[in-house]
Design a protein that fits this description.
The protein has helices at about 40-50, 70-85, 100-110, 115-140, and strands spanning about 1-10, 10-20, 25-30, 55-60, 90-95. By secondary structure, the chain is of the alpha/beta class. The chain has one domain (about 1-140): YqgF/RNase H-like domain (Nucleotidyltransferase, domain 5). Belongs to the YqgF HJR family.
């Protein structure tokens, strides 16, 4: 069973997918979106869902550090509902606090240039969100 991981931003959507056994997450791509105009990259997401036979979607849920839900979290909840309605798949909102920062630190440690980091940061954040979820599922 493959699971799709998404890092939802205002301009991009980082995408990762699990292996068939649900053990590891691999980054696929970053999709350009336009949240302001309701363009969420659903056509490309549909292609990826079909290509990888995805059965579940995990979306990073950006809570504030104190656990409250701010404007970005509310936008993510709305996006998650649209994904659920569009693709008729189970959607899980997964706490993503610090995932982008962790991805940035990992890329800096790997000596990836600033320009290249900007191109892959959302995809890496999606990998970290999905891997965290997969690890949690393994422990259950």
């Amino acid at each position: 069973m493959r699971i799709l991981g998404l890092d939802f931003g205002t301009k991009t959507l980082g995408v990762a997918v699990s292996d068939e056994l649900g053990w590891t997450a691999q980054g696929i791509e970053t999709i350009r979106i336009d949240e302001e105009h309701g363009e969420y990259g659903f056509e490309r997401l549909r292609q990826l869902i079909e290509q990888y036979a995805v059965e579940e979607i995990v979306i990073g849920f950006p809570k504030n550090m104190n656990g409250t839900i701010g404007p970005r979290g509310e936008a993510t909840q709305s996006f998650a509902e649209k994904v659920k309605q569009t693709f008729s798949l189970p959607v899980v909102l997964w706490d993503e606090r610090l995932s982008t920062m962790a991805a940035e630190r990992m890329l800096v440690a790997a000596d990836v240039s600033r320009k290249k980091r900007k191109q892959v940061i959302d995809k890496m954040a999606a990998v970290m969100i999905l891997q965290s979820y997969l690890d949690y599922k393994q422990l259950r």
